């Protein structure tokens, strides 16, 4: 892999950029690999990268039914934060935040991690109680999170309406300064390029149609639209499509898939300096480096595998945006889209071994998977390579839904996630 | 400024109707009906904006909503500013103020243009490859600079003073697109008697008839026929014609969203809404959305003065404006010839028609010859040159050779037409590649919709109109309307739209733009492919091709063709990006329409609320209710008011408006069995006339809600829920009733707002209430704690509960909501005689905490079982089933060490803990600390004379008397674990 740098750009500028090498190849699949990852999204590619980098496993294929980074990695609103309540969540997401900080340098790919701060708005006494509980727990877990008064919140985010006449006035906010955003496509591409450089095969447009198991039940490989591909270990990282994939191995997953929508405005000059989330009025907003306001909505109420959704969901979201930021009422929606999110009963992910030998699963990230990408890939690689979880993902088992040892962040917030 | 490019006798605007508007501070004359673009062109102004990345001067390319270049800011006041308005869409009104964007200090002299010097470095995706060293510089330097450079216009800075409207509409037939084909379809459907909505994004219907001069329909020009057709449609009761209305989203079940621009073209919109959202459900949708002309890709194709052929003709034939005095044409398509001919006839010199194609149709070359226009077939424009405006073009044979230069002030271009399949694609229909004409066309419809005319690939007007008529009649017939007159549409002459070129026009000199607005060049696309971006989605995202505010209307086909060419693949193998809504950008305010301010969310107030407002209550939001939090007297702060209220309730009595509590009437022969399943308690065993505190769990065994349940009759329960939980509890019950227990004969009705509830609590409660209650002996013996009766209170029918959330003798009087305030006022006056107060939610919280009563959602959080909360007694031991019974048996839910509800006291009684504070056993451990619980409720208790707190603590019940620690940022507070009941631990006052 030839290194990217300002010098490299200057070199290429002199020859009309004809010397750039491919960021990743499109190889023919081998007959068999040590590890096959199903799903070339951010989490799957990161898993492959860390398997290669930290565990010396390079005979890996990452398969995708479409193009890499084309699922939720390329559709989310790119919010990064780690101010979660429970120890297990704080550890996992903060592990990710630590990796985000330095990821561009590690991958030699500018993923534009921008620690501009994530501010979560409190609109009532209950919100305040919940956020302060988070802030206390975060402090004792070594995770930054601070309480802001409405005036402090407005100083941090000038477009915010803190008038007491608002339907749900802002009574304060929790701010994580290390939170922020990153460029989603660059994350997928950066991991793909760095993994490919370590010998990982990325095989796009190759849908998995079956999981083959030996007589003793262990995984032998996957049937695909490009033929059978042998594998000693298979890691499924298929987000919204995890349920049908795992059914191929006879496993019924505790997952439901919902459409989740987002939209962007036309680009404008910098006007919105941070990320603001409000669970109470259901809206998430930031401004991309390109100048678009990036706005996330809540999930549809009903399960579906359709990457689209109803106008009423967008209406509700924009109502909330215009309520909190009345200056944006004349801005225009430029593009909206949908993704499919896979949700577990406790809305926390599953990052674990499965009852099938050689089969591992990383799923259930719901609406919040992007922020965890580096951490998730890192500990999942560990889990596959060592056949045992990293201590950070030890709690994220499938069994917890049977034992009841849940990690229910949404319940802790006592509102929709 | 004079309108020196306005051609006398040309166009359809009235010269007597002059207007004046402003662009970059300078006044310009215009005519009524002008767009900003046509008015600028009339004044000889082509330079309208600067590009995104290189700040290249940009002109007016199009005459429609696909315009990528001429984006302006429109703002008569700071609050009504709108960025990124297409000058080709914004109509001029008197006094309109517009500004160019993304330039400093001026449009003609823009320092940002130095970026062009760095262009060799700013190749596709260059920012992914640099700005990484030193690490800290990303946040401090690179990102702020990039951000400042990006974005086009500026956001409004003040709240929007306008309002927006919304309409829902049903129709038999929705016709999208008011060109000749759409009009024919609408006429055919309407004549048959179908209800029809016809929408068009332009100010007037007519579509391509706006620019075409060659079409004749039924003895008139195409345009005149179109206006007659519109008049005919408007005169019909079963037709609604919506102009300035864009169909922007095609959803499931033929639901189409339209955005109507109501006042942006008016100097004084009076009190009309600025825009209106139409949410239309149509039996059938006819898409007559036409086609969009695209550019040719050659060096300098973005210079001001370069203009699409249809646009040049629209400006001439509709607005009476010549694009230039000395023009050339570069085309790969028949339709551009008309532009040359029309301009020549209007007096512009046409230097040359450069046709990419080797063969020019004979009638076109004959007409050119008649007008003395030279055609260079099989040639191409190698490069357009000029600074702020095109000055010349160099032309060469397609296969190379000598370049010839032509001085021009305008270049008319056409790369052919891209069918506008956006809405069809949004309807989930799949497009198919038509190899013959090199374009994507609609395939089979997925919803009840039909595509006609140019969007369906029908270039011939006569055939398109026939399609439209057929589609209109079929849609009417399908909706049950047969017959009617055949509309009078005889197409006697039309123009050819044959030809077209996707991809770059030969070896490129200079910058050849594929996506104008995002400054994406053909070279960028090829580079992306070299770097391994082989899916069109990768190409799009890596280069940002098609991601600007025109969403690829011009650039998608070229991007695709160039990528395919680079890969050596057929175009369809590279794929097609998904068409997303909206078709053109839609104002947030339009989508929000009425849902703002007070209507953002319903504000629920009880019927007693007016009294609380009159008496100085301070309110809080709980769910969408406003609840009185406390009633300050004589300048009291919350602390003082709550202390007084708390004391008064326990010494005398207090009145509390409990009307917001959720109330569900559960009725039916199986009501008891159903209640047994929904609650952990044995509710079927509850006697008629009795109350029981109930706990509801989710399937997982965790507490979901709680409330007091009364049995009104054998088959009738009066269920109360938490205030915030009422909707979800009803939903939860309905969900189980309909999916898990459909065999039960039970009906659920929300009666929250049917009852007003006055709670009277305290030692004097009985004396206060008794005189007003008819027919019930209120003595403790006859009507003990947890009794209920249907009776009359203050002469109105009531459900009287003997119940308490304070630990005092208490009554909750349910009366029909309309009587709430009068009953309240009677009891309030009576209470005053006994020294009673009114109290709010804050006092309610303190009083219940003194008794250790939980608030679901505060002392529980969805991870707490009834046993954890100390309410194991509420879980029936003998029931075989209830929601949560299996969950509660899971190993972790019965394990030792679960967090349990306990009380906490601080050694300093004045110290009030912070709610949410965490609890540790060892305060001296390093971070990350092992946290064993948290403070759920914490108050100053005036009645206890000290602070009190409730907490969830791991193994809490076994820690009674232990000292634990609450680490705060500035200190650590030692606490003692206690029972969670701080006042009247034996509960004697309840039964007083």
TrEMBL record, chain A:
Rhodanese domain segment(s): 35-79
Names of the cofactor(s): FAD; FMN
Protein keywords: Cytoplasm, FAD, Flavoprotein, FMN, Nucleotide-binding, Oxidoreductase
Organism: Zhengella mangrovi
InterPro entries: FAD-dep_OxRdtase (IPR006076), FAD/NAD-bd_sf (IPR036188), Rhodanese-like_dom (IPR001763), SoxB (IPR006278)
One Pfam family in the UniProt entry: DAO
Family listed: Belongs to the SoxB family.
EC numbers: 1.5.3.24
The keyword Nucleotide-binding belongs to this UniProt entry's keyword annotation: yes
Catalytic activity, reaction form: sarcosine + O2 + H2O = formaldehyde + glycine + H2O2; sarcosine + (6S)-5,6,7,8-tetrahydrofolate + O2 = (6R)-5,10-methylene-5,6,7,8-tetrahydrofolate + glycine + H2O2
Enzyme class: oxidoreductase
GO biological processes: tetrahydrofolate metabolic process
Record NCBIfam families: soxB
Gene Ontology terms: cellular component: cytoplasm
This protein's name: Sarcosine oxidase subunit beta
GO molecular function: nucleotide binding; sarcosine oxidase activity
Compartments where found: Cytoplasm
From TrEMBL, chain B:
Domain Aminomethyltransferase C-terminal intervals: 899-984
SUPFAM superfamilies hit by this protein: Aminomethyltransferase beta-barrel domain (SSF101790), FAD/NAD(P)-binding domain (SSF51905), Folate-binding domain (SSF103025)
Domain of life (superkingdom): Bacteria
The keyword Oxidoreductase belongs to this UniProt entry's keyword annotation: yes
Domain SoxA A3 as annotated: residue spans: 509-591
Boundaries of every GCVT N-terminal domain copy: 611-879
All copies of domain FAD/NAD(P)-binding, residue ranges: 172-431
Keywords for the protein's UniProt record, in alphabetical order: Oxidoreductase
GO biological process: tetrahydrofolate metabolic process
Transmembrane segments: none
InterPro entries, sorted: 2Fe-2S-bd_N, BFD-like_2Fe2S-bd_dom_sf, FAD/NAD-bd_sf, FAD/NAD-binding_dom, GcvT/YgfZ/DmdA, GcvT/YgfZ_C, GcvT_C, GCVT_N
Keyword Oxidoreductase: yes
GO MF: sarcosine oxidase activity
Gene3D superfamilies xrefs: 2Fe-2S iron-sulphur cluster binding domain, sarcosine oxidase, alpha subunit, N-terminal domain (3.10.20.440), BFD-like [2Fe-2S]-binding domain (1.10.10.1100), FAD/NAD(P)-binding domain (3.50.50.60), Probable tRNA modification gtpase trme, domain 1 (3.30.1360.120)
Family indicated by similarity: Belongs to the GcvT family.
Protein name, entry field: Sarcosine oxidase subunit alpha
UniProt source species: Zhengella mangrovi
């Amino acid at each position: 892999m030839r290194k990217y740098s300002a010098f490299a750009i200057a070199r290429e500028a002199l020859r009309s950029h004809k010397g750039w090498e491919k960021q990743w190849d499109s190889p023919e699949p081998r007959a068999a690999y040590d590890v096959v990852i199903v799903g070339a999204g951010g989490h799957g590619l990161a898993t492959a990268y860390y398997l290669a980098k930290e565990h010396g496993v390079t005979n890996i294929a990452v398969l995708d039914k479409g193009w890499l980074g084309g699922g939720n990695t390329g559709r989310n609103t790119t919010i990064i934060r780690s101010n979660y309540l429970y120890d297990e969540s704080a550890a996992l997401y903060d592990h990710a935040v630590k990796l985000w900080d330095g990821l561009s340098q590690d991958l030699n790919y500018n993923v534009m991690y921008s620690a501009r701060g994530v501010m979560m708005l409190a609109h009532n006494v209950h919100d305040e109680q919940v956020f302060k509980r988070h802030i206390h727990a975060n402090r004792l877990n070594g995770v930054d999170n601070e309480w802001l008064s409405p005036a402090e919140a407005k100083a941090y985010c000038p477009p915010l309406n803190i008038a007491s006449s608002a339907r749900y006035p802002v009574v304060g906010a929790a701010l994580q300064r290390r939170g922020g955003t990153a460029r989603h496509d660059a994350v997928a591409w950066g991991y793909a390029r760095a993994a490919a450089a370590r010998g990982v095969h990325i095989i796009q447009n190759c849908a998995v149609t079956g999981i083959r198991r030996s007589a003793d039940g262990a995984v032998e490989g996957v049937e695909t639209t490009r033929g059978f591909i042998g594998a000693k270990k298979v890691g499924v990282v298929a987000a919204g499509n995890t349920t049908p994939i795992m059914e191929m191995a006879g496993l019924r997953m505790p997952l439901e898939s919902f459409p989740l929508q987002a939209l962007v405005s036309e680009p404008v000059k910098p006007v919105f300096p941070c990320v603001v989330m409000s669970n109470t009025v259901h809206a998430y907003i930031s401004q991309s480096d390109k100048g678009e306001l990036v706005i996330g909505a809540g999930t549809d109420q009903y399960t579906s595998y359709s990457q689209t959704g109803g106008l009423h969901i967008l209406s509700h979201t924009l109502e909330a945006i215009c309520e909190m930021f009345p200056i944006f009422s004349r801005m225009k929606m430029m593009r909206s889209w949908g993704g499919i999110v896979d949700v577990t009963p406790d809305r926390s992910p599953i990052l674990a071994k499965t009852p099938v030998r050689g089969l591992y699963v990383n799923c259930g990230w719901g609406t919040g998977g992007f922020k965890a990408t580096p951490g998730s890939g890192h500990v999942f690689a560990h889990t596959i390579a060592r056949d045992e979880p990293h201590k950070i993902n030890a709690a994220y088992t499938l069994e917890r839904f049977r034992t009841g040892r849940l990690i229910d962040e949404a319940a802790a917030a006592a509102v929709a996630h | 400024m004079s309108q020196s490019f306005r051609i006398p006798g040309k166009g359809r605007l009235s010269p007597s109707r002059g207007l004046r508007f402003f662009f970059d501070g300078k006044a310009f004359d215009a005519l009524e009906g002008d767009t900003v673009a046509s008015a600028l062109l009339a004044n000889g102004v082509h330079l309208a904006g600067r590009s995104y990345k290189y700040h290249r001067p940009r002109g007016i390319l199009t005459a429609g909503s696909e315009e990528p270049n001429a984006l302006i800011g429109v703002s008569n006041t700071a609050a009504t500013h709108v960025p990124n308005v297409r000058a080709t869409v914004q109509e001029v009104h008197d006094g309109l103020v517009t500004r160019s964007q993304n330039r400093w200090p001026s449009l003609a002299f823009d320092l940002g243009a130095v970026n062009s010097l760095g262009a060799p470095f700013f190749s596709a995706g260059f920012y992914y490859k640099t700005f990484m060293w030193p690490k800290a510089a990303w946040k401090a330097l690179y990102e702020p600079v990039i951000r400042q450079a990006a974005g086009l216009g500026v956001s409004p800075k003040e709240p929007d003073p306008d309002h927006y409207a919304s309409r829902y509409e049903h129709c038999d037939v929705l016709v999208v697109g008011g060109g000749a084909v759409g009009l024919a379809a609408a006429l055919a459907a309407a004549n048959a008697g179908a209800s029809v909505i016809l929408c068009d994004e332009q100010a007037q219907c007519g579509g391509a008839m706006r620019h075409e001069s060659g079409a004749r329909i039924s003895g008139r020009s195409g345009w005149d026929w179109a206006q007659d057709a519109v008049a005919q449609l408007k005169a019909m009761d079963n037709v609604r014609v919506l102009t300035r209305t864009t169909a922007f989203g095609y959803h499931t079940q033929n639901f189409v969203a339209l955005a109507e621009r109501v006042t942006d073209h008016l100097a004084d919109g009076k009190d009309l809404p600025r825009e209106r959202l139409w949410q239309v459900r149509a039996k059938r949708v006819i898409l007559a959305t036409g086609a969009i002309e695209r550019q040719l890709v050659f060096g300098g194709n973005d210079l001001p003065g370069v203009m699409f052929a249809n646009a040049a003709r629209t400006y001439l034939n509709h607005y009476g404006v010549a694009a230039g005095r000395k023009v050339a044409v570069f085309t790969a398509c028949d339709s551009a010839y008309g532009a040359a001919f029309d301009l020549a006839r209007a007096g512009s010199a046409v230097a040359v028609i450069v046709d990419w194609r080797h063969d020019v149709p004979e009638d076109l070359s004959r007409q050119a010859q008649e007008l003395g226009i030279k055609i260079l077939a099989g040639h191409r424009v190698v490069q357009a040159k000029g600074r702020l405006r095109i000055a010349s073009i160099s032309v060469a044979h397609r296969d190379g050779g000598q370049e010839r230069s032509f001085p021009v002030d305008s270049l008319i271009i056409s790369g052919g037409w891209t069918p506008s399949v956006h809405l069809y694609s949004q309807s989930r229909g799949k497009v198919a590649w038509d190899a013959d004409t090199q374009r994507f066309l609609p395939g089979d419809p997925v919803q009840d919709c039909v595509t006609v005319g140019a969007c369906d690939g029908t270039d011939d007007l006569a055939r398109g109109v026939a399609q439209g008529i057929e589609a209109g009649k079929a849609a009417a017939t399908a909706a049950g309307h047969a017959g009617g007159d055949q509309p009078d549409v005889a197409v006697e002459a039309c123009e050819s739209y044959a030809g077209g070129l996707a991809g770059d026009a030969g070896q490129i000199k200079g910058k050849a733009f594929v996506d104008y607005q995002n400054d994406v060049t053909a070279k960028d696309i090829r580079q992306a492919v070299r770097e391994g971006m082989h899916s069109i989605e990768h190409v799009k995202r890596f280069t940002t091709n098609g991601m600007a505010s025109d969403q690829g209307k011009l650039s998608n086909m070229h991007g695709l063709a160039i990528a395919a060419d680079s890969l050596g693949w057929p175009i369809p193998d590279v794929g097609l990006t998904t068409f997303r809504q909206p078709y053109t950008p839609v104002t947030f305010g339009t989508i929000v329409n009425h849902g703002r301010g007070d209507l953002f969310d319903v504000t629920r107030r009880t019927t007693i609320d007016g009294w609380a407002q009159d008496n100085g209550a301070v309110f809080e939001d709980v769910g969408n209710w406003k609840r009185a939090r406390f009633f300050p007297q004589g300048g009291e702060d919350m602390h003082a008011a709550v202390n007084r209220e708390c004391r008064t309730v326990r010494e005398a009595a207090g009145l509390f408006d409990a009307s917001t509590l959720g109330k569900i009437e559960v009725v039916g022969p199986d009501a008891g069995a159903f209640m047994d399943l929904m609650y952990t308690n044995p509710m079927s065993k509850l006697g008629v006339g009795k109350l029981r505190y109930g706990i509801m769990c989710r399937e997982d065994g965790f507490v979901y809600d709680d409330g007091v349940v009364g049995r009104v009759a054998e088959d009738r329960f009066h269920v109360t829920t938490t205030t915030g939980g009422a909707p979800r509890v009803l939903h939860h019950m309905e969900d189980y009733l309909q999916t898990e227990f459909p065999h039960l004969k039970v009906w659920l009705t929300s009666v929250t707002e049917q009852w007003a509830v006055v709670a009277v609590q305290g030692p004097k409660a009985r004396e206060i209430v008794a005189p007003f209650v008819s027919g019930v002996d209120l003595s403790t013996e006859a009507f003990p704690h947890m009794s209920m009766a249907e009776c009359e209170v203050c002469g109105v029918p009531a459900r009287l509960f003997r119940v308490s959330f304070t630990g005092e003798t208490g009554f909750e009087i349910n009366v029909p909501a309309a009587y709430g305030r009068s009953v309240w006022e009677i009891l309030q006056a009576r209470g005053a005689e006994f020294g009673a107060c009114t109290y709010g939610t804050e006092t309610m919280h303190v009083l219940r905490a003194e008794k250790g009563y939980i608030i679901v959602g505060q002392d529980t959080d969805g991870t707490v079982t009834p046993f954890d909360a100390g309410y194991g007694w509420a879980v029936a031991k003998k029931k075989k089933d209830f929601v949560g019974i299996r969950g509660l048996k899971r190993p972790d839910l019965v394990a030792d060490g679960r967090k349990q509800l306990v009380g906490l006291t601080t050694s300093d009684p004045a110290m009030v803990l912070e709610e949410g504070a965490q609890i540790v056993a060892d305060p001296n451990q390093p971070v990350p600390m092992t946290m064993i619980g948290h403070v759920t409720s914490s108050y100053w208790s005036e009645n206890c004379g000290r602070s009190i707190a409730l907490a969830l603590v791991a193994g809490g019940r076994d820690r009674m008397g232990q000292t634990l620690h609450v680490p705060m940022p500035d200190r650590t507070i030692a606490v003692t674990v206690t029972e969670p009941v701080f006042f009247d631990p034996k509960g004697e006052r309840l039964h007083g």
